[in-house]
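Give me the fold.
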Amino acid sequence: MARAIFEYTKTVLKKVSFNTELFCKELEKAIKRLLPYEIDELKIWLNEFTHEKPELNVCLLLIKN
């Protein structure tokens, strides 16, 4: 079940990536819901995903803390 939440989180983040504010809000929700090792995986995925979307780099500060 936990894996499904992780995959769902990635799907939602992809869908809202057009809007930085929404992306940050969904990322905050994800941080609250995911397990610590899933957050580590999410960090890796986010670094790859935001590589070509520099406007979303602001949101990465949420997950670094």
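The chain has a mean pLDDT of 91.
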